[in-house]
From TrEMBL, chain A:
<comment type="similarity">
    <text>Belongs to the YIP1 family.</text>
</comment>
<dbReference type="GO" id="GO:0005794">
    <property type="term" value="C:Golgi apparatus"/>
</dbReference>
<dbReference type="InterPro" id="IPR051521">
    <property type="entry name" value="tRNA_Mod/Golgi_Maint"/>
</dbReference>
<feature type="region of interest" description="Disordered">
    <location>
        <begin position="1"/>
        <end position="51"/>
    </location>
</feature>
<protein>
    <recommendedName>
        <fullName>Protein YIPF3</fullName>
    </recommendedName>
</protein>
<keyword id="KW-0472">Membrane</keyword>
<keyword id="KW-0812">Transmembrane</keyword>
<dbReference type="GO" id="GO:0030154">
    <property type="term" value="P:cell differentiation"/>
</dbReference>
<feature type="transmembrane region" description="Helical">
    <location>
        <begin position="215"/>
        <end position="234"/>
    </location>
</feature>
UniProtKB/TrEMBL annotation, chain B:
<protein>
    <recommendedName>
        <fullName>Protein YIPF</fullName>
    </recommendedName>
</protein>
<dbReference type="GO" id="GO:0005797">
    <property type="term" value="C:Golgi medial cisterna"/>
</dbReference>
<keyword id="KW-0472">Membrane</keyword>
<keyword id="KW-1133">Transmembrane helix</keyword>
<dbReference type="GO" id="GO:0060576">
    <property type="term" value="P:intestinal epithelial cell development"/>
</dbReference>
<feature type="transmembrane region" description="Helical">
    <location>
        <begin position="147"/>
        <end position="174"/>
    </location>
</feature>
<feature type="domain" description="Yip1">
    <location>
        <begin position="76"/>
        <end position="229"/>
    </location>
</feature>
<dbReference type="GO" id="GO:0030134">
    <property type="term" value="C:COPII-coated ER to Golgi transport vesicle"/>
</dbReference>
<dbReference type="GO" id="GO:0005783">
    <property type="term" value="C:endoplasmic reticulum"/>
</dbReference>
Amino acid sequence: MATTAAPAGGARSGAAPEWGGFEENIQGGGSAVIDMENMDDTSGSSFEDMGELHQRLREEEVDADAAAAEEEDGEFLGMKGFKGQLSRQVADQMWQAGKRQASRAFSLYANIDILRPYFDVEPAQVRSRLLESMIPIKMVNFPQKIAGELYGPLMLVFTLVAILLHGMKTSDTIIREGTLMGTAIGTCFGYWLGVSSFIYFLAYLCNAQITMLQMLALLGYGLFGHCIVLFVTYNIHLHALFYLFWLLVGGLSTLRMVAVLVSRTVGPTQRLLLCGTLAALHMLFLLYLHFAYHKVVEGILDTLEGPNIPPMQRVPRDVPAALPAARLSATMLNATAKAVAVTLQSH
Amino acid sequence: MAEAAESSGDPGTTSPRPLFAGLSDISISQDIPVEGEITIPMRSHIREFDSSTLNESVQNTIMRDLKAVGKKFMHVLYPRKSNTLLRDWDLWGPLILCVTLALMLQRSSIDSEKDGGPQFAEVFVIVWFGAVTITLNSKLLGGNISFFQSLCVLGYCILPLTVAMLVCRLVLLAEPGPINFVVRFFVVIVMFAWSIVASTAFLADSQPPNRKALAIYPVFLFYFVISWMILTFTPQ
């Protein structure tokens, strides 16, 4: 496809003085425009394009002929014909101008090439950045480099959405899947975009050297810790385990983000304000996802289904701590399966 | 003409020069007529837009499209590296599959009317917007696949999960219990893996070779979400 498009483009640009109307067509040549008009694939040859060129040429000739005929008519008919012809020409020109503007605006906004440099990553880079997001750096004296890419953060947000959905596995929560799905997506994307913007605004106030893209990337990679904690604790329902993971893993990723911000900010007050806010928001979000998110879900269910549903048991199960590891996991699964069966049978 | 042929022939045999490098040496005198034939290789499956497809009966049109859709279903069920889904893409198959899946995931709304609405719309929105997101991602990563081709492939590869939904619905007619759940879990896992293998077979070639994993991961998440909706479905 690319090879056949290139010679066609070359032919067109070679003949540009004659076919001046096609300059807007080759303006965005080589960019990945989502081109809904030209189904650009199965044709595979430039014959459709040549056909289109001929079509437009013919149309222009027809227009020119019609205009010439109307001019003659106008001269023949005098003033009345002239006015009619003038109004028609004006309408025509306005239509052409509007069409040109609309197609230019469409190709501008549908041009996804603006985002292309932010997705220029290799799998090894993504893997190393994921691991680095859990390692706090010690050197805060000169600004640390933040990779400005959007692939990793976007995938981590989607993974968090998937993990949140996976966490609603008892039968009560699947009745209103629609609302839950929307809530999950809204929560995760809202956190990523909203908190990034807020911290960027604070950074602007505190004179920190960070751009919006870098803030988005930093916070996005900070969600890796959240994903790990939630994935583990949605499967093993132990409060003590959750607090441990919250402190350890959540704390590590928060420390990393805080260290990067500290290295880019000058002045103790500013550092305290910025990093305190970020740390508080990040840790509290994890707490919210584990506890209050499910209360929100239960609240939705309670208001919709009425009070005749037994409340979900979210207390730590009585698991004897002296069990060896293998039987511990089996007991955990048994307890979870029993809870699922009980709630299934209650319907 | 013979001199021209000779001089154009020589550079090719003597040393590796760029193609057509010797053409500048050729001079064609005025009185030699330049003539010949240019044959354009016609692609065999261009549909001719003449009146014959307009005048045929509706049944013919529908049967032809249905056969094309059925052929692509077969390609999905037995995934080999082939170009059929990419070359002749169409969106009928994904539409049929998406509507079937959304209808089956609809809960019966006898007891509470509020349950009847969102599931169909939710499945629809998730499938189409998920496919659009994955397509944008693979284009941004440098893939040379077109927008609609990618939508076509992702839509067609929902077929195994639709089959899993059918099986789950049949299994749910039996009495509920842990064995029920295990059977459904197993079926959904197998079909999920099949979907991913099928879509990888079609999509992987269009990505730069070192970035295949980056493009396949969102496909994995997409089918995971759909599988999750299928697995956690209970009729009441």
